[in-house]
Amino acid sequence: MEFLNTFINGLSVGGVYAMIALGYTMVYGIAKMLNFAHGDIIMVGAYMIVLFLPINPIVAIIAAIVLCALLGIFIEKIAYKPLRGASPLAVLITAIGVSYLLQSLAQAIAGPTTYHPNPLEKLFPKFMGEPTYGIIKIGAFQIKLSTLITLICVALVMIGLTLFVKKTKIGRAMVAVSEDKGAAQLMGINVNNIIMITFAIGSSLAALASVLTTFESASVETTMGSLPGIKAFTAAVIGGIGSIPGAMIGGIILGLVECFAQAFPRIAPYTVAIEFSLLIIVLLVKPTGILGKKRREKV
Amino acid sequence: MTFVKRYLSLAIIGTFTVIMAIMGFVGLPFSTVELLEKIAIAIILAVSLNMVVGFLGELSLGHAGFMCVGAYVGGKVAVLLSQSLGGTHIVTVILALVLGGSVAAGCGFIVGLPALRLRGDYLAIVTLAFGEIVKNIFENVQFFGGQTGLRSPQFIGKNRFIVFIIGFVLVLLTLFVIQNVVRSKHGRAITAIRDNEIAAKSMGINVTKYKLMGFVISAVFAGLAGALYSFTQSNIQAQTFDYNYSIEILVIVVLGGMTINGSIISAVLITFLNIFLQKNLGGSFAIAKDIIYAVVLILLVIYRNAPALKSFREKYNFQALWRKIFKRKHNPAKVKDDAARWDVVPTKIEMNEVLSTDVVIDKTGDNSADVGERGGNK
Amino acid sequence: MASTEKKANTINPQKTSKKHKREDIVSEYVLETRNLGITFGGLKAVQDVNLKIKKNQIYGLIGPNGAGKTTVFNLLTGVYQPTTGAFYLNGKDLTGLRQDKINHKGIARTFQNIRLFNNMTVVRNVMVGLQNQPEYKCSLFESIFLLPRHFKVEKKMRARAKEILKIFGLEDERNNFACNLPYGKQRKLEIARALATNPKLLLLDEPAAGMNPNETEDLVNTIKYIRDNFDMTILLIEHDMKFVSGLCDEITVLNFGTVLTEGNTKEALNNPDVIKAYIGG
User: Fold this and answer.
1) Is B236 helix (H, G, I), strand (E, B) or coil?
2) What does the CA dihedral B249, B255, B258, B261 come to, rounded to 10 degrees?
3) Are B58 and B210 in contact, with CB atoms under 8 Å apart?
4) Could you please report the per-residue DSSP string of chain C?
5) Which C residues 182-221 touch A at CB under 8 Å?
């Protein structure tokens, strides 16, 4: 039973990573850049929840997602678009700058206070309180409501995003832009719009991830996005960056490894080392990640 | 003449060190000594990272990891030796530096190994992972003090100024070694690999050897900087060496234009401004400093790199101003023998992964026969 | 067309099933290949190529687009490992060696799409070529601590690089960046750089591509000069038939990865099969 609970926990933690990793992978695949500020979008989303929660939990969730999507578009237009076609290193440094900026702005506006907003408590005040504390029990098996919601959300997002990329016109245009920007433009695809949509989707997924973490009563502070951001990036690379199912697989593997490592007191302190070693091992065995494709340079 | 020019930076820093040493005997305020130590560390870190980023053309996001290794190993050696020899004993200092540097070198070798197999952007995440692994291990190993950090023998009181003298001697050593490597045939091989790996191989250059050489040299000096850092602190915390620190160093290097001299200048300026503003701005201004720093960073990178601003840049820049003042003739094709346009140096982050929804494992990807082969869709 | 090309890019050459055991042979030829071939995931890109190139010969390798000419070059320089066959330089078996080792043994090449060290000056490009010769040996230690040998070697290398550049009329450009050179000069610099590695066999991949008639004429003379003064054997790929017939003593014609015909240049070019392969039908 302990095993099953850890497993389900791992799935839910991994699901959140996967959701953030999807943002990394899509931005990487289409705009060809490492969006270091992606983790900080999570932080902004969490602060939006803090801001709008007193009004209404549903409003807070929607506001977080929409505002983060807009923020993503705004950042892309201001900071990344002028650098399209410049060296990837320049774009990377700009992304780092944006990350600093978001963190220091949050620091300036919100101050050093740590918040613990939980929309779930507001939505289901009775169920989250005594005597259940938000835990669903079926015999010996028990699952937290927040975990259940996370799992459902993650599954829906995965299926939805895959269908979106495969079936819709915009999704196919995304793949085309990712393959060859110039050719896609010649085929009448508006590359600017596609990149904008990519950022909007990526950022709203990051916001959704922050909503799910607040369900677990995470601490909301200015640096809360850094570690999940880095870990999600690791997950995207493990799965094979650019690959949507790869991001899911990578996220879930990482989540499982994290939860199982933390289940053993002896190795729990070394969780981070284990996770990152896993990344290095995967890359050494398969240099482009699990589902990554190898491309060869023509000599 | 070229010889003088080549070692100009060394001469300037050497003179500066001598002056400061003399002033140190007279007595410098503690804050100045602290500032000088920090500047020395920043210069060593930036110049050594530039070896990998600027000359080898690989992106490293884990430079603080090497520093962490150097700090813990050097610090521990100093702790152990100071019990018998005393903290400021020359043997203590030298052994701590040597051991810190060599263990970091070993780590550089290990991190360099994946570089033979991985493309630049993947290597970047491996270096990042390395930094986090090192940090995580050191903060949990009891031998190195565990969560409470490593207590190191601090060079306190009157003797503190010796540390910055050691620091600037290390800066001189770093500059001397890295400049000489870069300007030798070995450095040429390293830059050739950066410019075109396939052509470098066909010219008979042993890519494995030179890539590892680049990583090891870079790591040695990061390790030395770490050991130096351990001398300045009473307590070493692994948390200090997180990836944000690595990124700070990378920003210094990139803003310095990925040249040795540029790295020095930007290391001095950024460290100085950081500490100066931290001291002199209180409360909300301190946050304003961070915001301004971020905005300036973004604007600066956009200004220097945006394709749309190219003609503007060519018209209004330092060189143009220089020529205007001194009435020099401009010949864009002709440049000095030792110069290079580092600002256009390609760092090998290729970014050509394509969005896909396939759930098929690409079996051809695990071909070990083409170690070091770089991807690309040319 | 585009999709097949992409496929060839993404699929790696299969590893040689059993490791090739290197055995030297006695050969009167500078380069001899025996049944050289490579398979890319089932596609036989090149098969059964038997080249025999005599000393001081200028040998042509021609064929329509996609015939596998550059693949042969890639096999001969170790970029790809052959799946079948072997190749010998002066009787020494070089099959399966690493790219840099093959260069040390004496094969140097240029590339179809120019691959210079763009952020280095012209003279340094050539100096990189000189790296591995025994007379310019200088350890890392000697370089770091500026021992006398470092200066001696640097001076010697620079002088030698200047000499080589002079042959190609590039000595005035020596302090320019390689990427600032005009196209024709970049091609020449690539040859100069390859020559600096002191090879026994020089592989030129479309050296005259994109040159005007004057430049081509100049190049013909330079290649002949290299052969005579450097005691060089040259294998080249070219589409310009006038260039080939003016320069090459013998040629091999490839089509679909196999040898169509080989031998005397005039005869081979007049072979009806060759004309058919080029014109189609």
Assistant:
1) strand
2) -90
3) no
4) -HHHHHHHHHSPBPPPSSPPPP-----SSSEEEEEEEEEETTEEEEEEE--EE-TT-EEEEE-STTSSHHHHHHHHTTSS--SEEEEEETTEE-TT--HHHHHHHTEEE--SS----TTSBHHHHHHHHHTT-GGG---HHHHHTT-HHHHHHHHHHHHHHHHHHHHTT-GGGTTBBGGGS-HHHHHHHHHHHHHHT--SEEEEESTTTT--HHHHHHHHHHHHHHHHHHT-EEEEE-S-HHHHHHH-SEEEEEETTEEEEEEEHHHHHH-HHHHHHHH--
5) none
Out of 3.40.50.300, 3.30.379.10, 3.40.50.2000, 3.30.70.940, which CATH number does the structure's domain C2-106+199-279 have? 3.40.50.300
* From C10, C74, C111, residue closest to A294, measured CB to CB: C10
According to the 3-state scheme, what is the secondary structure of C44-101? EEEEEECCEECCCCEEEEECCCCCCHHHHHHHHCCCCCCCEEEEEECCEECCCCCHHH
Q: Does the distance separating the beta carbons of C11 and B181 come in below 8 Å?
A: no
Q: Write down the pLDDT at residue B330.
A: 54
| Per-domain boundaries in chain B | 2-280, 282-327
Instruction: Among A296, A298, A299, pick the best mutation site for testing chain B contact (most B Cβ within 10 A).
Output: A296
- Cβ contact, residue pair C123, B337, below 8 Å: yes
- In angstroms, the separation between the Cα of residue B205 and the nearest Cα of chain C is 6
Residue A112: closest CA among A103, A123, A121, A124: A103
Name the B residues in 238-267 with CB < 8 Å from any A CB: 243-244, 247, 250-251, 254
pLDDT of residue C8: 40
Cα–Cα distances in angstroms (integers) from residue C198 to residues B64, C107, C127, C134, C164, in the given order: 43, 9, 12, 11, 11
pLDDT computed for residue B372 by the predictor = 33
pTM, 2 dp:
0.88
Q: Which chains touch C (3 or more CB pairs under 8 A)?
A: A, B
Q: What is the three-class DSSP state of B72? A: helix
Distance spanning both ends of chain A, measured CA to CA: 56
Q: Which of B202, B334, B373 to mutate to test the interface with C (most CBs of C within 10 A)?
A: B202
Are the CB atoms for A212 and A153 separated by under 8 Å?
Answer: yes
| Residue A121 pLDDT level (bands cut at 50, 70, 90) | confident
Q: Which residue has the tokens 């990640």?
A: A289
C66 touches chain A (CB under 8 A): no
Retrieve residue C251's tokens: 């040629």
Work out the mean pLDDT of chain C and round it to a whole number.
Answer: 86
Task: State residue C17's pLDDT score.
Answer: 45
Whether the per-residue pLDDT at B282 is higher than 80: the answer is no
Query: What fold, for B2-280?
Result: ABC transporter involved in vitamin B12 uptake, BtuC (1.10.3470)
Chain B nearest C-alpha distance from A291 (Å): 5
Q: Domain ranges in chain C?
A: 2-106+199-279
* Nearest CB to C119; choose among B186, B200, B345: B345
pLDDT at B346 over 60: no
What is this model's ipTM? 0.88
The residue of chain A nearest to residue C109, with distances taken between CA atoms, is: A299
User: If you measure CA to CA, which chain C residue comes closest to B366?
Assistant: C12
Q: Do C100 and B181 touch (CB under 8 A)?
A: no
Contacts of C11 in chain B (CB under 8 A): 364
d(CA B183, CA C146): 11
Report the pLDDT value the prediction gives residue C19, as an integer from 0 to 100. 66
Query: Closest chain B residue to A249 measured between Cα atoms?
Result: B359
